[in-house]
Amino acid sequence: MRSFLSLFTTIFLIYLNLNAQKKLTLIENGVFYDGYAKLVSEPTPENVLRLKNDVLTTKITSEIISQIGIELNIEVEVSALCDNYDRIGNVSLALVPKGTEKYNLNEVTHIELGRFITPFMHKNRTTSTVSYSFEAHQISSILHSKSLQQKYDFWVELEVFGVPYAAQKEVKGCEGRIDVFSGTLNFITSEKIYTPEETFQFIPITHKFLLYNYDIEHTDSIGKTQKTFTFELPEDCQNGQLFLITSNHGANEGGEEYIRRKHIIQFDNKEVLVYTPGGKSCEPFRKFNTQGNGIYEREPKIEEDWTSWNNWCPGDKIPTRIIDLGKVKKGKHTFKITVPDAEFVDQQGYFPVSVYFIGS
User: How far is CA 258 from CA 182, 200, 224, 330, 341, in A?
Assistant: First the structure.
């Protein structure tokens, strides 16, 4: 009996060890400034660079990569400073030429790992921090890829856009200030060792492409909200997946933020996904929206009131949609997104589109 208990205890401890999680903090309490102002020279946390007032970046060192297991989640905490409006933010992975100590945002390849919307937060009220968590197990494959490691260093960017103009007037202590938010970025990972797959393939397709129908650089055809991207796969793969992030923006009257639109995704001219963003209640995020605003009224709304119009909630993350493609042959392929009913009243609004391919 003792022998059995001892064996059971050993197995249980091994299981716990394999499934234990660790937190790796990459950016801690980094401060973001007015996105329209010139680049500030204020200090950043150790090993963190400010590329823009709204973008902080840090290198994912080999020491950090060695600690990342087969499971990976990204955790972001955003705290209010002197912006009390809902703003867009995201986490991106930058593939930077090996040995580069500082890079230009516009000269390296990116993929978007997660996107979120800040709540209407008042820094002087009890709830002034919001957290977001993104499942990103597939990123372990990228970080552990030997072929990618030979060509690139990996940097992770935390971006939180904001402007202080309303808060300077409405929030006590913000007069004359241009700091808008602070943010922390953690990797939460399992200690189960990741073994790279020899058949792994990774293709960045587009990163935060602004889709709208009133400029030919942002659509396939003026008047149509659609865009086709072409990429080439070097080898056949048995299991192909697309990782897609989109969100609707345009806050003018009749703007695209307030109208739910059907999105159609095609791969090699075959429809693979149809979805309409939103469709959920924003009541769970009311507690984070501590600044009075036109979205959250004084009384709670029923679910139907929210789902009739909203594409996202202030204080929530934007979904990452995973599209399973099955077998994909080597050669050229197309990804196409269409939003057939989008109008863009007064030529305002846009849909940022990010998508990348992973195959094995």
Answer: 28, 40, 19, 41, 13
- Identity of residue 104: N
Side by side, the strands of the sheet bearing 179-190 are 21-33, 179-190, 72-80, 129-135
List the pLDDT tens digit at each of the 360 positions of the chain.
Answer: 555 445 444 444 344 444 578 999 999 999 999 999 999 999 999 999 999 999 999 999 999 999 999 999 999 999 999 999 999 999 999 999 999 999 999 999 999 999 999 999 999 999 999 999 999 999 999 999 999 999 999 999 999 999 999 999 999 999 999 999 999 999 999 987 777 677 799 999 999 999 999 999 999 999 999 999 999 999 999 999 999 999 999 999 999 999 999 999 999 999 999 999 999 999 999 999 999 998 998 899 999 999 999 999 999 999 999 999 999 999 999 999 999 999 999 999 999 999 999 999
pTM comes to 0.93
- Name the DSSP class of 2: H
Q: Are 52 and 39 in contact (CB under 8 A)?
A: yes
Give the number of residues written for the chain.
360
What is the C-alpha to C-alpha distance for residues 114 and 136, in angstroms, rounded to an integer?
A: 9
